[in-house]
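Reposting from the mailing list since nobody answered there.

I have sequence plus structure tokens for a pair of proteins and want to know whether others read the tokens the same way I do. The first protein:
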Amino acid sequence: MPEAFAGYPAPFVHDQPGGRKVQQLLWGDWLELSGESQDDWVEVSKARNASGWMRSSDIGSDRLLEINFVDVGQGDGCLVVTPDDRRILIDAGRQDNMSNYLRWRFNLRNRPDSRLRIDAALISHPDSDHYEGFGPLLDDEQIEIGTLYHTGLVDHAESPRLGPTETVGAVTYYTELFASMPDLADALPRLDPGESMHYPGLLRTALSTGRVDDIRSLSSRDEELPEFSSDDLRIEVLGPVTESVGDKFALRRLGADDITKNGHSIVVMLCFGAARFLLGGDLNQAAMEFLLQHYGEDLDPDSSQSVFRADVAKACHHGSADVSTDFVARINAIATVVSSGDNESYSHPRPDALGILGKHGRGERPLIFSTELARSAREERAGVSLSGAIRELAPRTADEVERAIAVYGMITVRSDGTNVVMAQKLERPTGFGTSWDVHCLEQGPDGLHYNSAAG
């Protein structure tokens, strides 16, 4: 039978035609149809582990773009599934939440002989709350990665921490960027002298598993994520911005090492039909001001034409206050997703950052989602992942905890290139059978807008 998917925006499965609601679905959820029908009702044999009947008008035939902001605690982790069913992983947090989510989502635990291919994996920048979660994925023999992309900056064992520098005028540049897998393999023996160098050690693991096809840097010079563009989908690469220093490409120093690493995060804009989605790692104020200058937008008063203008955006640096108000205004998002944790000392998201996101969001009722607020379980105890600690005592309970963390803390986005649905799982269904908090961005004469009545 042809593929079938749940229709817009969040239809129900019923126990019989016109009967009791047994499951709420999200737009784009995969359906298995039995082939039976009654009037305008169609029998569904599998839909989010439920079976029953759906109205034929609630069933579609097209795959959507899917963006899942997974609750990884204090950090970032995002899985993108393209309409042609390819998978892009952007960051993986610090603990094993991303690993747990992928194993649950693709049912790897119950299918030990199966393999999951991640077509592209992006480490937005070398901060532990973005890259350490790749460790469990690289250790998992069921997971394969096509290309692992990074910024090219790698910690060095000796000073300067981010490698050799060269000063041109008043600007200092880091001139040793590792663009290819051979470059990285040749340099790792001197970059990774011991266990204390965690990021080089992760890259060494990626090189040695045999389950990563390629490792290479990604920057605005690439313009687009290679091999992922189609007639409908384009993934633009807006940062980091490399500059020519002599015969080398280099990244400028933006401040202290951590400021420079954060500021040169990989920045991608997913353009799907008329919808735009911005993912910007841990961009900070220094980087935002540099990007505005680089793209000539510090002099352009027309923010509606900004290359950074997006309908949905991930808040940079977990809602840090180190943010450019002008940059946020250029994004002018209808909806912003904050990925943060409750076991950290930064008090992310910062109150003033939330104020900026709301004030400079688009429309009268801009949306701010938070993985931390959507969560139903604290993600770690005493530095040990919650699921890992419980698994030692009660494996079956651990499966339930993994599912709770993966499902209830996640913000999911679905789009057909015209409209957008954003949803978070309710911890307890309503009396009307509703189990998702659904928000719809719909196309109007002036582009997408939030329809508070549609969800």
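The second protein, same order (residues first, tokens after):
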Amino acid sequence: MSAISKEVADAEIEELSVQKPWGPRIIDTIRRKPLGAFGALIVLIMIFMAALADVITPYDPLVNAFDKMHMPPSAEFWLGTDQFGRDIFTRIVYGARTALLVGFVTAGIGAGAGLVLGVASAYFGGVFDLVLQRIMDVFMAFPLVILALAVVSILGPGIQNVMIAITIPFIPQCARVVRSSALAIREIPYVDAARALGFSHSRIILRHMGPNVVAPFLILATAFVGQAILLEASLSYLGLGVQEPTPAWGLMLQGGAEEYAESAPWIAIFPGIAISLAVFGFNLFGDAVRDLLDPKLRDR
């Protein structure tokens, strides 16, 4: 090796060995991905609101005050009151709990189940892969909203049934994407080495193949949270989701979208803004996660 080549190699090794502290790395990421940082800020604000709803809200979200119905935004009621006299700001803050609960639970279970099924389908192949993928094709043939509507119509309204209805469509979407990545990983020699050592199929799938497809899994899980929030709001607006008096953004839209559009428009405007910001924030954050985890996009 020439002297110049040796110096270059030593410089690359030294550069790789020096790790930036977390603070400068976070600042550098914010500078490179300002929209992703803005999305993360929205997500953090939602989590803060949901966690400290009892502290930052002055009223009970479930108590009706019929002497204060349809009051416009003021110093007493920052975002006004609804048709039952309940403070809209309080309902929106508590509604963040419902949105995040549905979003995180459905995205976690749906993406997790899709991860396992996708890796297992790629690992076993053959008839198992063929049958499983045809089942996934059947589910993916239906639009997301239509499939969720069908499931919740069978199970009935309620937050638990809504989470089941939203989780089911997420599974085939994640399984299909993860399978495409796992097919390439299956051909890597360390998988054959694990088989030769006598490791069980579950250990190879969960410990050797699963961690290597975590990048698309995280990207899909982040995107699923925003989709789940929007889908839950849609189902609640149609009367098939969360039921009164539980605070939920879609349910708030149902109560004020048409009847009070002219006399008290704030009943529908502010929940709509909350839904839009939540979905917008998770989408921006998901795009940033994709760019950071994808080597091709990360180098641009």
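Reply #1 (J.P.):
I read it the same way you do. Confidence is low (pLDDT under 50) at residues 1-18.
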